[in-house]
């Protein structure tokens, strides 16, 4: 045996192996990055469900089908019973009413002008109340009538061409002749004309 040669015994080899194992276990382990989730495609199956949750979905679908507009039949009569809506003013009233509706985002469905009244059917957004659109139509049309037809201004010293009050009925159908006549009689009584 060479004096410079070192021979290990089995016991020493076991001790060195244990130290190596301890050394390995004491070394810090590198932190691995989280593994991304596997990219898998899921197949959805639509199963009819009669629970409350599906009922709520049904209700939501029906809400979206509700219209955001309302249609009204509207009626105004001149303040003076001898201020007839006839002749040249009728064409202008039709044109002006169309212009008012377009300007304010309303939709004119129909218009009827008789010597004693004007009636129209129009569709407006839910956010517009009858008093708002009737006030607008009254003011705008009165201004135009007095500018273009000064003969009406001679007798009527108020800024409103129309008699007090108005008739507004929800729906697409024009008001009946009976309801129009009843409205006119009521307004004329309130004015003290009848």
Layout of helices and strands, plus pairs?
Layout: H1 10-26, H2 52-64, E1 69-76, H3 88-104, E2 107-114, E3 117-125, H4 130-148, H5 151-155, E4 167-170, H6 177-191
Antiparallel strand pairs: 1-3, 1-4, 2-3
Helix pairs in contact: 3-4
Could you give a short description of this structure?
The protein has 194 residues and is α+β, with helices and mostly antiparallel strands. The protein has helices at residues 10-26, 52-64, 88-104, 130-148, 151-155, 177-191; strands at residues 69-76, 107-114, 117-125, 167-170. The protein has a four-stranded antiparallel β-sheet, with helices on one face.
CATH architecture of the domain at 69-191, by name, is 2-Layer Sandwich
Query: What is the N-to-C order of secondary-structure elements (H for helix, E for strand)?
Result: HHEHEEHHEH
Instruction: Provide the CATH top-level class of the domain at 69-191.
Output: Alpha Beta
Trace the largest sheet across and list its strands: 2-3-1-4
Tell me the major beta sheet.
4 strands, antiparallel
> What is the approximate shape?
globular
- How big a fraction of the residues is strand? 5-15%
Secondary structure tally, helices: 6
Q: What's the helical proportion of residues?
A: 40-55%
Helix/strand/pairing class, anyone?
A: alpha+beta
CATH topology name of the domain at 69-191: Alpha-Beta Plaits
C-alpha end-to-end distance: 147 Å
Poorly predicted tracts of residues: 20-29, 40-48, 50-64
Spatial extent as radius of gyration: 43 Å
Any idea what the CATH superfamily of the domain at 69-191 is called?
Transposase IS200-like
Summarize model confidence as the mean pLDDT. 80
What is the count of β-strands? 4
């Amino acid at each position: 045996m060479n004096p410079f040669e070192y021979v290990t015994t089995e016991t020493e080899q076991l001790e060195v192996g244990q130290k190596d194992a301890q050394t390995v276990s004491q070394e810090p382990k590198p932190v691995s990055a989280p593994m991304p989730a596997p990219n898998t495609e899921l197949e959805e199956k639509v199963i009819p469900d009669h629970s409350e949750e599906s009922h709520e979905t049904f209700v939501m679908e029906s809400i979206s089908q509700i219209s955001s507009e309302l249609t009204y039949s509207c009626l105004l009569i001149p303040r003076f019973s001898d201020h007839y809506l006839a002749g040249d003013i009728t064409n202008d009233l039709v044109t002006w009413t169309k212009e008012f509706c377009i300007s304010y985002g309303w939709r004119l469905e129909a218009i009827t002008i008789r010597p004693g009244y004007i009636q129209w059917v129009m569709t407006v957004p839910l956010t517009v109340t009858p008093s708002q659109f009737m006030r607008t139509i009254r003011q705008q049309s009165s201004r135009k009538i007095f500018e273009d037809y000064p003969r009406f201004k001679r007798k009527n010293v108020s800024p409103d061409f129309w008699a007090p009050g108005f008739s507004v009925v929800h729906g697409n159908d024009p008001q009946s002749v009976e309801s129009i006549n009843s409205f006119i009689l009521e307004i004329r009584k309130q004015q003290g004309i009848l």
